[in-house]
Amino acid sequence: MALRTLTTRKTLTTFPQQLRGLQTFTLPDLSYDYGALEPAISGDIMQLHHQKHHQTYITNYNKALEQLDDAIVKGDASTAVKLHSAIKFNGGGHVNHSIFWKNLAPTKEGGGEPPHGSLGWAIDQSYGSLDKLIAKMNAEGAAVQGSGWVWLAVDKELKRLVVETTANQDPLVTKGPSLVPLIGIDVWEHAYYLQYKNVRPDYLKNIWKVINWKYASEMYEKECP
Amino acid sequence: DALEPYMSKRTLELHWGEHHRGYVESLNKYLEKDDILYGYTLDELIRVTYNNGNPLPEYNVAAQVWNHDFFWESMQPGGGNLPILGLLQQIEKDFGSFSNFREEFTETALTLFGSGWVWLVLKRNEKRLAIATTTNAVTPLVWDDIPLLSLDMWEHAYYLDYKNDKARYVNVFMDHLVSWNAALARMARAQSFVNLGEPKIPVA
């Protein structure tokens, strides 16, 4: 009889949740093998980064969302607000890394191939040349204190390219609500330490060999047709 | 390699030899150029360049030099175990028990977002021990509190040895590396600045 009450109670609690449709997130697959980005980024780093770090962000994000959902239903404002930093950090981590995986491609699939079309033209217009843009992004990326990201973004209101940095896992929109990320480079130490140790500038120099400009061009053309 | 197998020789070579050394060299380079800042002691330099929350560029390197010095001295080979004497008493008074303290310290270290440090500090105004976290290069010195122990939670401190298993790193630190002797010495010195109990005034 105890078993019966257990099962009925369980269905009572899960049923309304399914009605509300709380979506959980899962780790997106990479479209290339872990070792496909060598020698720019080692297979070990890719595997750890994807399977451990990104997965942890997703797990904690799902947990925080569940807790938030609970707090909202119960009308618990202080818990709901307290969860915001966990959501920004873990949710941001998930969002940022999902973009990052698409920003990378093995050289034989076009990684490192400079952008053509409107994005290439816009880069030359705003920065003079692709090399100058890369130098700028590398300088800003190396200067990030502690953990963060360096971004190439397009401001969809002003229709121009922007180089920005964010701290920790803050998503790019925290720097400007109309910024759309084109390329993000993870400069957290876990992204390069096993291979490049503390020489972040070397990591930044080499990562351009596997940057997927095709994705960036697609995103750019969507905002600036 | 004295801290093996808990902190590998390779980590120390990199952490001390490259990161810490890099900070020292950058700081020296800054000080060469800047006449105003020359002549301060490191502690004063940190407070001045912190600029009440709007840190000057020298702040990061100065504070990281100090932080790392402090961190190396917070560890010892054969460390771990329990604090003794007055420090243990104070911990029990302010946290309830040593295991409460250890749990809170571990929990704090694991929930730190991004790069930073976890500290056991003596709070000057509240006259009690507390656990503090700081991000990036911030140090409790800037709030005028007295640090007793620190743990570097920047990824470079543990990544080579533990990859992303922070929990294991923190537990190993508490079990095998933390130097309660250093903390005790620092506590003794701190008591000349902070009155923790009633002073024993002789009657006759």
TrEMBL record, chain A:
GO terms for cellular component: mitochondrial matrix. Residues 24-105 form the Manganese/iron superoxide dismutase N-terminal domain. It comes from the Eukaryota. This is Superoxide dismutase. Destroys superoxide anion radicals which are normally produced within the cells and which are toxic to biological systems. Destroys radicals which are normally produced within the cells and which are toxic to biological systems. Its main location: mitochondrion. PROSITE patterns: SOD_MN. It comes from Ambrosia artemisiifolia.
Automatic annotation (TrEMBL), chain B:
InterPro entries: Mn/Fe_SOD, Mn/Fe_SOD_BS, Mn/Fe_SOD_C, Mn/Fe_SOD_N, Mn/Fe_SOD_N_sf, SOD_C_sf. Keywords: Chloroplast, Iron, Metal-binding, Oxidoreductase, Plastid, Transit peptide. Residues 87-183 form the Manganese/iron superoxide dismutase C-terminal domain. One of its GO terms (cellular component) is chloroplast nucleoid. Residues 1-75 form the Manganese/iron superoxide dismutase N-terminal domain. It is an enzyme of class 1 (oxidoreductase). It catalyses: 2 superoxide + 2 H(+) = H2O2 + O2. SUPFAM superfamilies: Fe,Mn superoxide dismutase (SOD), C-terminal domain, Fe,Mn superoxide dismutase (SOD), N-terminal domain. Pfam families: Sod_Fe_C, Sod_Fe_N. Destroys radicals which are normally produced within the cells and which are toxic to biological systems. This is Superoxide dismutase. It comes from Ambrosia artemisiifolia.
